[in-house]
Design goal:
The protein is α+β, with helices and mostly antiparallel strands. It is 30% helix and 17% strand. It has 8 helices and 12 strands. The chain has an 8-stranded antiparallel sheet with strand order 2-1-12-11-10-9-8-7, with helices on both faces. A two-stranded antiparallel sheet has the order 3-6. Strand 10 and strand 11 form a beta hairpin. It starts with a strand and ends with a helix.
């Protein structure tokens, strides 16, 4: 009962696409690899690639305090509270910041997030927030939204342009964007609630909090990136040849003795898998590649849920057997 599913794979050098379902339940127009979805938390990987570029360009360092990139309007009390948090801690979900923002967060599960988060919201939120368990892994959408905002301040470039400069233009990802324009609107797949798949919902609108959660893309675009990323990671693993697409250069275990770590926006497993997933009230996504087995998978759907990561695990098991 899933309205649509688009899968792209890169296996031993060959590219394949499988698309099933429709743009919406009434018009019955079939989806393709060029159909546009919001990709939820896969946006964190884009932020990671941007941060890695800026680190390699010596414009930021992982050890820098986040207060180096906050506006001068912030109070001394707020600056003092945040001073010990580093860019690297935001990147590795170790900042002690909460999982989600409070401003505008009055939605119920199943509904879209519709609030144009602003710079003023960041300032207000950070003045009130309590820092908890800094240095431990606690997944934070808010932390990655803040990270994207800080990269804007570090460069003087808006996030949409950072995305274009470091990702979409270099890798020819023509339908990956923060804002749909022109014909792209007609290619957007309608999202449906994951708990009641006959109920249409709508894309998330998040303002300054959009980068880690509400970017638009396609399986075709993401497969272009994942192919390059897999190749870059293979080169790094064999010869230490770095690239902005290598997101494992600095990674931190999720906990003591953990077999999974977190790098520049990707989870890294000791089994040789790299990836991230995303789940919104509507869209769902998975992005996974294996250096050991030389394959990569991208999955986008218009009605997510727990079945999405289970499906990509099942596909990977089949590929590993082959």
């Amino acid at each position: 009962n899933v309205p649509s599913l688009s899968v792209g794979s890169f296996i031993y050098g060959d590219i394949h696409f499988i698309n099933t379902g429709y743009f919406d339940r009434t018009k019955r127009r079939r989806v393709t690899e060029e159909s546009i979805y919001q990709i939820a938390s896969l946006g964190k990987m884009f932020i990671g690639i941007i941060v890695h570029n800026l680190v390699l360009e010596h414009k930021v360092s992982l050890g820098q305090s986040i207060t180096d990139f906050l506006p001068s309007t912030y109070s001394e009390k707020t600056i003092e509270k945040l001073n010990s948090i580093t860019i690297g801690q935001l990147l590795h979900h170790q900042s002690g910041l909460p999982r989600d923002v409070k401003s505008g967060y009055n939605r119920k599960d199943g509904n879209s997030f519709l609030y144009d988060y602003t710079e003023a919201d960041f300032e207000n939120e950070l003045s009130k927030v309590k820092i908890k368990k800094q240095g431990e892994f606690h997944y934070s959408n808010f932390g990655f939204g803040l990270l994207a905002y800080l990269m804007e301040n570090a460069t003087g470039i808006g996030y949409e342009e950072l995305l274009a400069k470091y990702i979409t233009r270099p890798y020819q990802m023509t339908n990956t964007t923060m804002t749909l324009t022109g014909n792209q609107t007609a290619e957007l797949v309608t999202p449906y609630r994951k708990d009641k798949r006959d109920i249409e919902t709508e894309p998330w609108r998040m303002g300054k909090m959009a980068p880690p959660s509400a970017t638009y893309s396609t399986t075709e675009d993401l497969l272009k990136l994942i192919e390059k990323q897999l190749i870059a990671q293979v080169k790094y693993n064999t010869s230490q040849k770095t690239s902005p697409l290598v997101l494992s250069e600095h990674n931190i275990p999720l906990a003591e003795g953990a077999t999974v770590s977190y790098g520049y926006g990707l989870f890294i497993g000791s089994n040789g898998y790299y990836g991230h997933g995303g789940d919104m009230d509507g869209y769902g996504s998975e992005y996974s590649f294996s250096v050991k087995n030389n394959h990569a998978l991208v999955l986008l759907t218009s009605s997510g849920g727990k079945w999405v990561p289970k499906l990509i695990l099942a596909i990977n098991e089949i590929l590993n057997k082959d």
